[in-house]
Structures are given as C-alpha cells and as structure tokens.
Design the sequence.
C-alpha cells in the first residue's frame, strides 16, 4: 500500500534504495515531504513507500507510479560494472541510462508531472581538470560508457521537455561520499584504518567531492526552486583537497596516523599502468575540480555540512560497520 501525501502532491524517487537514495529519503522525511519509491522489486526497508515497476529500461510502464506525482527525482542508473560480461556493454548502459530515462521523462510529461530532477555525473564533463575547474558551460568530454550515456540522457531530456509542462533539472556531482559509500573511497578508508603504507605523499593534486547529505540537500532545493527549471548544475562541498590531505583527514577522523611516504608521481603512474590500474592511479594523482557557483548563485544554496563534518560522519559509519 502506497502512502498518499496529505496535500495530494508526491515526489517519486527512482533508486531510493541506493546510496544517494537512502540519504535523500531520510532528508525528505526530516523536512516532512511525502515521497514514494519506484522499485525494481519489493524492498522491505521501504515499506508502504514503494510501487514496483520492474526493470528500468525503454519499455517500463510508469503509469501507476506517476499517478498524482508532482516531481520525479531520477537516481536509478547503471553505474560502473566490474568484470562486465555484457555482449554489448554500451547498449547495456544505454538501456537504463538513456532509454530508461527517456521513457520515464516522456511518460512523466504525459502524466502532467511538473519537474524531473536527473542525477547525472561530472563524468559528462570529463575525467580530469588542469588549470580551471569544470563548469556547466564546458564542452562535454565523457571518457567511458557511463559518462557517455549520462550525456546522451541529458541531451534526450532537453529535446523532450520543450512544449510540455515538464521542467527538467540536471545535477552533475563528482565523487559522492558518506555512510554507505562503496568503491574506491571505501577501499581507501579501509587502507587508512589499517595503517597500510601509501606512496602518495608526493601527489599535489586537487579534487572536488560532495558529501551525500549535501547532495541530498541540493536535490531537495531543486524540487521547488523556480530558477532551477531547465538548468544544469555542478554540485560539490567547496573544499578541494589533495589526495594526501584527504588521507590525513581520514586518518584524523578515525584516530589513526596517516602512513604516507613519497614516490615520484610519474613512477606511480608507470607502476599502475604495468599492473593494469592506470585509471585508478589517475584518480589518486590527477586533479578534478568543480565550480558549483551557478548552483549557489541561482538557488542561494550552501552546503549543509562542512567537508570535515561529512568525513567524520563517514568515518564513524565505517567504524560501526566494522564492529
């Protein structure tokens, strides 16, 4: 049974059971907003806040899920897949990220939905920056299937929205961290907690990140803000740290000593390339900075949590997860 909003207006969330989705639903609950999750299969933790729509692709029927919906927050996506065994990986990404998004937007427009917020990725801009941070005005330069299909979905939304009541807002976050984080950030937490020596003291890069609570807050701000209609925004905490600085702050948050030692960056990259880990090394040694001033200026948004606060909360979650 789906919980109906008292004012007849609901927010539909795809990917509500995921990393960002859990933070968003908690933040919505704290603000008293009503929401419902569109799920692939029943999820016990979502209780009566869900409608099962099955797999998300170009054939998904959204009719029931969109009934009475005022805003859709589309988080569900095919993200990075290790050991991908798809016969056509690009089409596997497109099935969800492009065709699934397009079908949802078309049906949302037909159902009279007011706004669709699409969680894209900074990977639409590219993988690294040099002298200047990424901005919304940069020419897209995605380097992998995930970034490419996110860009294609953004383009599809721009062609679908004109002529309909549906307003679209796109958010492109960089690396998202917080309780429940996975992937490279979780692995780095584990290495720091264990005191593993890390040859990264000579790295002098700058990387933007966004705490998941700040991302959820930015999404909520975009739900109602008139200025967000038709806009694309980059979002970040606003503190760009080098990899060694991040590790030091991680260690301090976990009451550990940062075990860093120097190694020339070219040698690091060469060793990683020989081990088939070039991309991972690039993320540790290269820069990726984001300029989120448009979001701040248009919507008056400022991060709810300082980066150090977000990192401390993440470290506490990791500690409790281990015990």
Sequence:
């Amino acid at each position: 049974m789906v919980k109906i909003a008292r004012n007849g207006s609901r927010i539909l969330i795809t990917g509500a059971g995921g990393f960002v989705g859990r933070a968003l639903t908690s933040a919505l609950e704290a603000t008293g907003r009503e929401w419902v999750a569109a799920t692939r299969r029943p999820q016990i933790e979502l209780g009566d806040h869900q409608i099962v729509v099955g797999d998300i692709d170009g054939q998904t029927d959204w009719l029931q899920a969109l009934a009475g919906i005022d805003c859709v927050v589309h988080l569900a996506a095919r993200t990075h897949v290790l050991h991908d065994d798809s016969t056509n990986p690009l089409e596997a990404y497109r099935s969800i990220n492009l065709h699934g998004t397009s079908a949802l937007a078309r049906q949302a427009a037909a159902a009279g939905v007011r706004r669709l917020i699409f969680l894209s990725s900074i990977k639409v801009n590219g993988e690294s920056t040099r002298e200047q941070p990424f901005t919304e005005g940069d020419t897209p330069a995605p380097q992998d299937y995930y970034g490419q299909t996110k860009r294609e979905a953004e383009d599809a939304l721009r062609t679908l929205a004109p002529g309909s009541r549906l307003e679209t807002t796109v958010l492109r976050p960089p690396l998202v961290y917080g309780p429940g984080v996975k992937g490279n950030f979780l692995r780095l937490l584990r290495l720091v907690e264990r005191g593993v020596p890390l040859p990264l003291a000579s790295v002098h890069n700058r990387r933007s990140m966004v705490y998941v609570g700040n991302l959820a807050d930015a999404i909520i701000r975009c739900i109602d803000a008139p200025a967000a209609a038709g806009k694309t925004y980059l979002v970040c905490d606003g503190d760009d740290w080098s990899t060694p600085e991040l590790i030091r702050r991680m260690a301090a948050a976990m009451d550990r000593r940062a075990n860093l030692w120097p190694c020339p960056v070219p040698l690091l990259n060469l060793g990683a390339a020989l081990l088939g880990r070039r991309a991972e090394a690039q993320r540790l040694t290269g820069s990726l900075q984001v300029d989120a001033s448009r979001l701040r200026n248009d919507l008056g948004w400022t991060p709810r949590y300082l980066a150090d606060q977000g990192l401390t909360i993440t470290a506490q979650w990791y500690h409790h997860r281990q015990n």
